[in-house]
Please model this.
Amino acid sequence: MKRRKFLKNSAAGSAGLMATPILVGCKDKKVAKESTLIGKQSVIPIVIATWDVPNATAKAWEVLEADGNALDAVEKGVMMEEADVENQSVGKGGRPDRDGNVTLDACIMDKDGNCGSVVYLQHITHAVSVARKVMEDTPHVMLAGQGALQFANEKGFTQENLLTEKSKLEWMEWKKTAKYQPVINIENHDTIGMLAIDKNGDISGACTTSGMAYKIGGRVGDSPIIGAGLFVDNEVGGATATGVGEEVVKTVGSFLIVELMRQGKSPQEACEEGVKRIVAKNKNYKDFQIGFIAVNKNGETGGYCIQPGFSYRTFSKDGHINHPSKAYITS
Ligand code: ASP
Model:
């Protein structure tokens, strides 16, 4: 075959390939990934958050709608709950540890896999913003306790008393029996985990909590642990968790869910598998709650939990919707 003819044929060949919708089996990673999305309508931009937190998802959507990026959306979104003193499991107003200290855990992760985290942070309402500063302004991923507070002070965050009168009175009441017993679906808004995809298709996530009420001083849960309480891979999707953090840490839950999506599971299937791993390892699974949410690159979402009562909220062109989650325990 003459060289010119060969080139002509191969050009026609590749044009044909581009027009062919079935690309499964192609070794090129990018093309292979696109093949899993064939026939599915993309739902981006989108935001998804654990629990029914309309103020948080509306704020994140406001950022996305104004062509803001997913990182700003998740930070601004979860900040709404951190500032809300009525939400007693996040930020200011959060329930204290058994000694009466409110200690916050938070993390954030961007489209490039950068992440920042703070654990056992006291006196600062917006733990997620301190986590973002750790990500952007330090060579580290995680700062803890006094060091995290010192860093926040250096960055100009204002110190506040995070223990509200309401949480203080409840804690004093709790001290009468002082029994550590995590409450299932407390107030229907627990740890806030949020994932967003912006108009460019880039994914970010954030997670923030005051942790389990009346925990031992110094206890840190899953929420600020990258891979456990939150994980984002911009090629695949993101996942985040709420519930008894110790169990999420043991299975590296959010990382597991993202990896399951990478292997082809839908966000819903991946969340279900994540919960079932925890159930399989715990005879006492009926005594605690775990909830996972996930989104894939295409904007498809899913959520699953152990106990009925968990829900998650999405905001996209399809509306601002609270989804009661499917649960492992059905009655
Ligand atoms: N996952 C959080 C923790 O273990 C608490 C929660 O979501 O309720 O600290």
